[in-house]
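Bug report

Summary: structure tokens for Multidrug transporter differ between web form and batch submission.
Environment: batch mode, default settings.
Steps: 1) Submit the sequence below via batch. 2) Compare with the web form result.

Sequence submitted:
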Amino acid sequence: MANLSILDNKNHKDIKIITHFNDAFSEKVNSALIFPTEIKEAQRDYPILFIKSPETGQFQSVVLLGLVTDENLYINNGWQASYIPAMIKKGPFTIGFEEKDENGKVTKNPVVAIDMDNPRVNKTLGESIFLENGQASPYLQHVNQSLKALHEGSQLSPKMFKLFLKYDLIEPLVLNIELKNGDKLSLNGNYTINEEKLSNLTGDALNELHSSGFLRLAYLITASLGNIQRLVDIKNDL
């Protein structure tokens, strides 16, 4: 369980964050959540798939990072892709909420929190969070940008999937992969865009998806599936 602490420049003035990726800090996960605000950048490097949240049953978009459990093929002496998903780039930080009493009414205001038990958090190595004058460091500014993308994206994601479902664009996807050593892998529980239905959109459906900005994202998602071969190639070379 995360040990979250609301970030401030007094209690955390000496805290540093290890930001590199290696065997010790490898984020060994075979997928990571992404949001509509990231799809344009993410589709260049990763296959983008849909899954259903085990908690809510709602669709979520993810980037595929590995072909088996706890495998991240993008880490090899650093992160081997031009774009790092915001869920990973944010490191030990998250958006929390602080309750305040304003004129007798309790409101929840978003704040940046840090998981003090995260192994990247220390006082000797890595990037400083705050400068000596108490201002946010360039590193923390980048983190704030990632958190902003996550916050904005989390609000867009339900709207995107609502339209995809409205026009019946989502279909199951089973990935059956055979490696050059003969091993056979099967990845289930994933979904993607039905390209034929996407191509056949007309009238109000086409206009609504286009005006929302989600039509372009749908095409980028289908194009991203070509990156599955990139994962297979990396896996074959291990």
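Above is the batch result. After comparison, the two runs are identical; trailing whitespace caused the diff. The first helix runs from residue 39 to 42. The longest strand covers residues 105-115.
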